[in-house]
Specification:
The chain is mostly helical and 70 residues long. Helix content is 83%, strand content 0%. The protein has one helix and no strands.
Length: 70
Amino acid sequence: MMLRRPYFAKMAMVAASMAAFAVGGHFVAATAINHQQSKQLEELANIALRRSEVAVDFGVATMTLPNAAG
């Protein structure tokens, strides 16, 4: 005769497995999302830096232009 696990023990194992999978998936997804957000924030900072450099260059060029009125 083969020994069988009780129904409650099987259901507890299934529930524990599902919970472990869900928790693991949550941490993996959170890590992936944080990495993507960091990457996008760095890209946004680089764009803002380039735009501010262009604005400063334009301001310097405007200030150094000779006065047309004389």
